[in-house]
């Protein structure tokens, strides 16, 4: 815990802003909005399951940030058990790219494949003792 930063939200914000700019943009402009958009497709086939898997992985990061008072490699851990099956489900569905839902699913899968590539590396580093 960082006692030098009394406000937990300020401490999280400071740790976010300390990340490389491309990571900040990736998270705010792409990763979170693409996963959150799954809520608009809950009435489509597997829509509720897809929304659950996409969103729960992000929501589980909230307590991690509050406990650690920062953004860290620990945040990669909730992505692994939820986004891995999400990507596999989408690939198994082989969505029709000519529909809005199908196009969205391909974008969601590609987005989370990229994220998981970083997450597996961060999870390995975290398990090896690098908790930064």
How would you spell out the order of helices and strands? HHHHHH
**Structure annotation, total helices:** 6
Strand content: under 5%
Structural class: mainly alpha
How many runs of DSSP E, i.e. beta strands? 0
Low-confidence stretches are none
Arithmetic mean of pLDDT: 94
> Using only CA atoms, what is the Rg?
16 Å
Q: Give the helix level as a range of percent.
A: 55-70%
Give the overall form: elongated
First-residue to last-residue Cα separation: 12 Å
How would a textbook summarize the main sheet? none
Please characterize this protein's 3D structure.
By secondary structure, this protein is mainly alpha-helical. It is built from 6 helices and no strands. It has helices at 8-17, 21-36, 47-59, 61-68, 79-93, 100-127. Helix 2 crosses helix 6 (100-127) and helix 5 (79-93) packs antiparallel against helix 6 (100-127). The longest helix has 28 residues, at 100-127. It is elongated. The termini are close together. The model has no long low-confidence stretch (mean pLDDT 94).
Briefly say what this structure is:
The protein is mostly helical. The chain contains 6 helices and no strands.
Which terms summarize this structure?
about 130 residues, mainly alpha, elongated, 6 helices
């Amino acid at each position: 815990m960082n006692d030098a930063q009394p406000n937990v939200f300020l401490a999280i914000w400071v740790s976010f802003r300390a990340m490389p700019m491309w990571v900040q943009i990736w998270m705010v402009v792409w990763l979170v909005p693409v996963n959150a958009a799954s809520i608009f497709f809950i009435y489509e086939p597997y829509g509720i399951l897809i929304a659950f898997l996409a969103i729960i992985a992000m929501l589980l990061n909230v307590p991690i940030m509050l406990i650690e008072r920062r953004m860290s490699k620990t945040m990669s851990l909730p992505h692994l058990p939820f986004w891995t099956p999400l990507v596999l489900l989408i690939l198994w569905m082989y969505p029709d790219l000519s529909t809005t839902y199908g196009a969205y699913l391909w974008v969601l899968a590609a987005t989370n494949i990229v994220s998981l590539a970083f997450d597996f590396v961060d999870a390995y580093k975290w398990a090896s003792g690098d908790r930064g």
